[in-house]
Design brief:
The relative contact order is 0.06. Helix content is 35%, strand content 29%.
């Protein structure tokens, strides 16, 4: 092809154009090729002959880094460019990196294009482009290597790409020393909270122990003294009008002594385990059932397992009151000869039952006055997330079952 740039050769397969020679002429009038392959050009200035020769082997074009700007601030780069920059030192606030590059075409009329990639993220080279700079932004923390190479018109690329190495540091809140300090601070905070909770728990335990001791020593002793004095007064006036009130006062005092004993037991932190609760249930069952001639049996977990289960004071107190009220009703109204008690563990719940072989009752009938105490205890246990169920039928006994979360 004859153009204003001279004589050119087109390689249709690869799309490459090679410049063969410059022509100093006004116009080309005709062009022919002889049997030897030489080209004859008739121009307005005369006849020209061109003898084709194999094009000299071209060398791959070299490439250099020409400039670096980090967050808009230039970094020093040699004026003649550099093939590989020393690793860049960046801070977590450096969000963008601009890299300039250039190459050298080793054959005339051979425009260069460039390809780049970010090793570790882009394994493939970018499409060839005439742009001579690239901007990297929004990079995640990590180490990177930027590579760029030049590509000439024949498709040859640089033997060695120009490189820029840099490390994008993580933000302060993701650095190891910050995470370590945060972990230590959190551990110290948790330790302080745990220590405060332990101190508060110890203080509560001391208050509970002191209240239990005071109730036992002061209230219990005082009520016992009142009961004793009422009995002495009754014996001192047999048949008198004061005898009956003295009997009632003595019974009331003894009843209060029992109630005070239950309160002291529920407050004392030494009895916060299930084994202590079961021991108290055995005492209550023996005190109420055996004088009435009622046989009884308690089914309970193994003592070692029960000793490891902690019970809240309010839970212990309400469970004990439920069992006592149930046993009182058995003694007063059931006419039973045998009672089966059961307390079991079911995961994080306590289940149990009180079953008698007495006369029973019709649940559909109007409630008896004696049932009001049991209904009150059921309501209190339900406040703790528990459930109470009563099953009974005439002449078929009564079963009271309960379940409550630990």
């Amino acid at each position: 092809m004859v153009t204003a740039s001279g004589l050119l050769r087109l390689d249709p397969e690869r799309g490459h154009v090679h410049h063969l020679a410059e022509l100093d002429f006004a116009s080309v009038l005709a062009a022919h090729r002889d049997r030897d392959g030489e080209l004859w050009l008739a121009t307005s200035n005369g006849l020209l002959r061109y003898t084709p020769r194999a094009p000299p082997a071209s060398r791959p074009p070299p490439v250099w880094i020409g400039g670096i700007r980090v967050a808009g601030v230039p970094r020093p780069v040699p004026a003649m460019g550099v093939r590989a920059l020393p690793p860049l030192s960046l801070s977590s606030g450096d969000s963008t990196i601009e890299i300039d590059y250039f190459g050298l075409a080793l054959a005339p009329y051979q425009p260069l294009r460039f390809q780049h990639r970010l090793a570790g993220i882009d394994e493939a080279w970018s499409p060839p482009s005439g742009r001579r700079s690239v901007t990297l932004a929004s990079l995640a923390p990590g180490s990177y290597r930027f590579e760029v190479r030049a590509v000439d018109a024949s498709g040859q690329s640089s033997l060695r790409p120009a490189t820029v190495r840099f490390t994008m540091p993580p933000p302060i809140w993701r650095r190891w020393w910050f995470l370590t300090a945060l972990g230590l601070a959190l551990a110290a905070l948790l330790a302080a909270v745990h220590r405060a909770r332990l101190e508060r728990a110890v203080a509560v335990e001391r208050v509970r122990t002191r209240i239990a001791a005071d109730l036992h020593d002061e209230l219990g002793a005082g009520l016992s003294r009142i009961s004793l004095l009422a009995e002495v007064a009754r014996q001192a006036s047999p048949g008198g009008r004061a005898a009956e009130p003295m009997v009632q006062a003595g019974e009331a005092a003894r009843r209060l002594v029992g109630q005070a004993r239950d309160i002291v037991w529920s407050l004392n932190p030494r009895f916060d385990d299930l084994e202590s609760f079961l021991g108290r249930v055995r005492e209550v069952a023996g005190e109420l059932l055996e004088p009435a001639g009622i046989a009884w049996r308690l089914e309970a977990p193994d003592a070692r397992a029960a000793s490891k289960i902690r019970l809240r004071p309010e839970l212990r107190r309400r469970l004990l009151l439920l069992l006592k009220e149930s046993l009182h009703n058995v003694v007063r109204h059931s006419g039973a000869s045998r009672v089966e008690l059961s307390v079991r563990l079911a995961g994080r719940r306590i289940t149990g039952s009180i079953t008698d072989d007495g006369r029973g009752f019709d649940p559909a009938s109007p409630p008896r006055p004696s049932a009001s105490g049991l209904a009150s205890m059921r309501g209190r246990l339900e406040e703790l997330g528990g459930e109470v169920a009563i099953e009974s039928a005439p002449e078929r006994g009564t079963r009271i079952s309960f379940t409550v979360p630990l």
